[in-house]
## 1
Amino acid sequence: MAKIIVVTSGKGGVGKTTTSASFATGLALRGHKTVVIDFDVGLRNLDLIMGCERRVVYDFVNVINNEATLNQALIKDKRVESLYVLPASQTRDKDALHKEGVERVLEELKQSFDYIICDSPAGIERGAMMAMYFADEALVVTNPEVSSVRDSDRILGILASKSRRAEQAEEPVREHLVLTRYSPERVEKGDMLSVDDVMEILAIPLLGVIPESSAVLQSSNSGVPVVLDEQADAGIAYADLVARFLGEERSHRFLSVERKGFFKRLFGN
Amino acid sequence: MGFFDYFRSSRHKDNTAAVAKERLQIIVAHERGANRRHSPDYLPALKRELLEVVRRYVQVEQDQIKVHLDRDGDFEVLELNILLPDDESARVTVTTPSAPKPAR
């Protein structure tokens, strides 16, 4: 059964697209047929991060409007087998995404994919609501910083009340915390919220901590999802995150030594 | 005096993370109370029915009734605010036999 996973955050610039790209690529690397959809209509960027910007012919909105078939719009990744990208449209039409159209496309994708990753735009406007609405699970991308944590909490509230699962009184959307741009040194100095601070406030299970890393900018520069960089700390952290998502047990790396011990006690079983 | 001291004392330069956590805990708890998981879903229905009852006696508009639920420590306060028109003619003559006659 295909799973729909939204990557969301509320606040912009925290790493949603970076996370979507690496999460989808990581799942595909592990042999799962995966598609990643850009919901940021008008401001598409997932194509750049995935390095397929010059291969975009048709987009998500074309498929919704029956101007192209899914097969025409899906871009097959050149590096990883069984990985596809569905780019967003650059239209300025705010009503381009509607529930019926999005549902139809998702249902069609469900027939042939294992995982459907929805890269949400920032904010709580239509694109973000559409990305969240059909989700089975959610990766809530958060920076250890006040405005990001507050917005994440708002998003959790929306997932709990406005998603299809909430509306139809089904089992709630499964939430995962992804803490990005984490700097153990600054945490130690008391300049940054720690993992356990953020977890205490948001009260959802931690899927992964991605350290602040120069590799993230370098990989976006070259259009290669950072998870493919096996030498980089952030790449390794994303690979761990994917493994954890698939049910493997992996201890959290790139936290301070003391905190690592703490988390082992907390999550290590 | 005390007002500024409060900010100075809570913003020790060496642990702004603790300040961030404290501020977040307060604002997040507040916002959850207002519009999240804990907000009871019967409020809109309650508001509608209250308005119906009031309208049997007095003609009030939809926006003249305010229902507000507040959390204060361990207990909750349901605040109901109905703005009655001062115009006598707005009173509705009650026709239901069991209902009391409108007060003069």
## 2
Amino acid sequence: MGQIQLVTFELSGEEYGIDILKVHEIKRLKEIGITYVPRAPEFVEGVINLRGDVIPIIDLAKRFELETEKNEKETRIIVVKQEEKYIGLTVDRVNEVLTIDSEVIEDPPQEISQINSFYISGIAKYEERLVIVLDIGNILSPREEEEITKTAVKGRK
Amino acid sequence: MEKIDFEKFKKLFLQEADEQLEVMEKAVMELEENGENRKVIDEFFRMAHSLKGSAGSMGYSAIADLTHQMENVLDKLRNNPGSLNDDITDLLFISIDTLKHLRENVEKDIPEEENPDIQHILERFQDFISIETDGKKKANVEKKIQLTSQELKNLKEKAGENNVLLLCFELIQQQEMQSMMAFLVLNNLKDEGEIVKTFPHHLEEVEGDLPYFSILICTEKKEEDLVKLVEQTLDREEFKVFSLEDIEQGKASDYFQEIKENFSRRDESRDSIRVDIEKVDQLMKLVGELVIDKERLLEISKNIKANSRENSEAQALLQTIPHVDFIATELHESVMDIRMYPVGSIFKRFPRLVRDISKQTGKDIHLEFSGEDTELDRTILQEVFDPLVHLLRNAIDHGIEAPSQREKSGKPSRGTVALNAWQEENNIVIEVKDDGAGIDPEKIKTRALEKGLVTEAQLEEMDQESILELIMEPGFSTSETVNDLSGRGVGMDVVRTNIEKLDGEVEISSEKGNGTSIKIVLPLTLAIVQALMVREKGNDYAIPLSAIFETIAVNGQNYKEVIKTVKNREVVVWRDQVIPLIRLSEFFLLGDSHQEGFLIIGGVKGRMMAIMVEAVIGEQEIVIKSLGDFLGKDKLFGEIPGISGATIKGNGEVALILDIQGILKSFKKGGEAIER
């Protein structure tokens, strides 16, 4: 029986998780000077210097088209690694690292969350909590693909 | 050894050989599929070694010889990680197949003399073993002209009415591009007779230095005719011709020995080492970091200057920093220099290609080169090969007309394609030029309209150059349409995309009936450039200095003089030219622009513009960081006109690099930026 570790965080009142193996580091938003990238999609907050590499910062709430009120003090950037690229995701608050049996993660039912199921790889039911496990690859897929899948794919990819 | 014992040993040998061959075969497949792996090579080596041992003790000399060479090549691989290539795996496959064959012969008791000839395989091994560590083939300095008595016998039989001639070359004049000269000579000779042998063995594949080489040819032509032919490429003093008799008498080998000695004497005077390119890349990366820190130091020193005139420590620091600045710049240039490579190193791969294409298309093509020794950053050079192949193919396939048609239009039936390279300020230009039919702008217009790439109105406003550039639009031409139009659009969008990735650009000029020139303009280096830092709405942007002509401060006093309005569009009159004004904040949708600030006059000749920014911060060296992973079609950011990359400022924050060409292009496409 395999176990999985999730970094869980909050976004607009819901709890989400990312496989810890994908997470490179977590930074405070306040610590970094983000450079705005003009004419980029709205969810792109900008780019930062991560030890000599220039990496993008994605506003996850905007990416999911969620309403959110930011409390800068709690806002964190989760730097994930996807296909050898580093990318920062801003989240409202980082909660904890959760170790669960991978069996607990179920396929996402449709319309479980406010966000498009395209971004979800599963739902973890843990004690009384419901953690939405994200599919990092899809979050970082380009604009156009997203448009296609919004209309064509409903349900798990 | 008694007969019975021998049979027993033979059985044992065969058994073992089966296992060893199986492991070897698996190993070579593993190497081919997953690349170099020390463990696999070691295992392979062990197997080859034990097979060699048992074959040797049993007297199976062919197997022993072959495994011995395999061992050598594997050992070479172990000592030079990264040198594995397809040729080697091919050869190993062939060897294993041959070993299997030899093993069968052992089983069937076929005498050693009747084994297949493995000499040619052994020779190929010999070539690999003499390869230099970086995978580049170099002439085997030790190799003499040697013909076995069998080969001499064959040659004599062949000779009959034909001439057997050995041409020995010593390239005295040609210090650069030696292997290319060898290739050209060999290519010319190929048409004149049968090339029996060359020294070094794979003459066509040798790259780089090749101070001496020889070609053995069997031809109907007379000696003097061959000499004339070779003289088209090389000076007479650079080669000697020997007859079959001379070879037999050993005159040729003596001569070869002599030039070899000459060469090694000459070579002693200049020392060089071979370095793994990865090490140079690492060095470059470190220099990049140093440049960033250096800029930071310069920034700090400005503050110190103002604040601490009295502090002697601070003053000492201020004296040191300019030196660090100087050293960092020198260091950067030195490392860049190491990375520079002559473009000839890729040009020399083209004669063969051109020959093949001209054969396919039935066109007679003369390929010319110039500027082969123009140097370019190695990384850029590698990336530019494919686009050049594409351009050459297009030039021959679609540019040059069929011989009959050429004659009708009064041109020589033989078409000329020229590959030219030269340096132009901070750029390297590589041009593919043909004297073919040229591109018909009318046909381009029709096609572009058909494909819905432009509207009539847009065409009206376009100049000749922009019209030609339409062939580089994605979707302009597909392979089905190759033949109706002069077909230049096939894959031209790919060429442009690849070149733009390198921060370069593609320029097309063509005259209907008189040929086409396509220029690839590339930056000298990708890594570090001089840039002007500007500020707009709280963000800093870097503009490469190479793209800037002048900066003009605009204030309440000169505003009306400098900025005018023509047809509802703002323009700047600069040195008697009317050029479009682009306000950065509007272009980037950052909000309203301002009345005061700075105009950055930039672009290339004929395509200039003025960009209005809030403030100019100053010049500095920037290290270019690619945004290629995120920027561009189908990527996270999508396409963002006007941004080509990013850099890290002295304070550790990121600044985006402006792409003047991109801004202008996007602006030209109907002023999209302003209207949005």
